[in-house]
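Suppose a colleague, Dr. K., hands you the sequence of a protein chain of 369 amino acids and asks what its three-dimensional shape might be. Before reaching for any lab equipment, you can write down a predicted structure in token form. Begin with the sequence itself:
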Amino acid sequence: MKNNRVHQMLLVVSLFAGASVWPAVGALAGSVTVVADFNGGNTDTLVDAYPGMAGDGWANGWVVASRDGGELSATVVEGGTPLMADGGNYLTTTITTTADNGQATIGRSYAAGIDVSKDHAIHFKYRIEEYLPTNFTDALDAYKIFDYSSVRSSTTSSLPWLITGYAGDGFLVPQDWLVYDGNYDNTATEIDTGIQLQQGVVYDFQIGISASTRTWDVRIENDITHAVYNSLDLNPDGLGFKGNWTTVGGTLNFNARTNDTADQRQFSIDGLVISQTGVPTVPGDTDGDDDVDSDDATVLATYWGANVGQGGFAMGDFNGDEVVNAVDAAILAANWGYGVTEGSTAVPEPSTIVLLAVGLALLAIGRRR
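The predicted structure, expressed as tokens, is then:
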């Protein structure tokens, strides 16, 4: 194995020597998507499954967190009553409790494929499965969707964004979806969307994250009545984050709470797509600092020969074939020095830096033996 890698890396040196055949490419408008359609069913050996595994932009498989006696079970349904118009699998979740006021969350981080410090969009389908008039009657009964840096068993006052649906009894409007216009200090104004919680309705959620302004917006549509709430109609500048976050956490959390042991919350999700478009992407620029330099060569050396999956640009997979190899090294060489301004630290020639990359990679291999 070691000799094979050395052979490959020596091949890279020859590619760098002829790097002029690779045209230098300027900044491109990149597009990245991270998707969960649950096509893989119920397994931990595929990415698009439950519980799934890391890959394709997801930092991990689906994670469950609970508290106060809350218990969560989830399964991918094949057939059933799909949430998507074109059919397909979906994830259905049931939350019960062994004590009063138990709650649980199922969530997943998309931060491995999306740069959470930049603008991006979140889209998913959501359906409540329980018959609400029976048990969804206490002020503590709730469905919640929110962002955080990890999967949380419950919400906190310090969140980037939050969507809730309460049973009522003292809340703004019983059984409506509520959103929050935050003040960046763990407080927020509660906004009634006018979109009622109903069993069997597929809700289409579209959430926009504006990283530069630390704001978010949301559009919710009822697929039966086609009633729509769009936060931009009344808040064209966006909704503020609740907590003092410089950016979102990049982990989607789907939570539900039940007030006693006789209750259970049930919901299904499908069609999750987190997308990021129009992000400047310089071929060879792994760290997004708009230049191609020794930092990027070091990253390429670190992941040399690795199968990095989809969305591996930040690990050196510049051509999107999911492997960091000689082709990526040649792309880096062709764009070597892009964005490096005069007065910056002297930048070596491509042939010099590839030797550095080879040395780093060989060092890494030696340490793993």
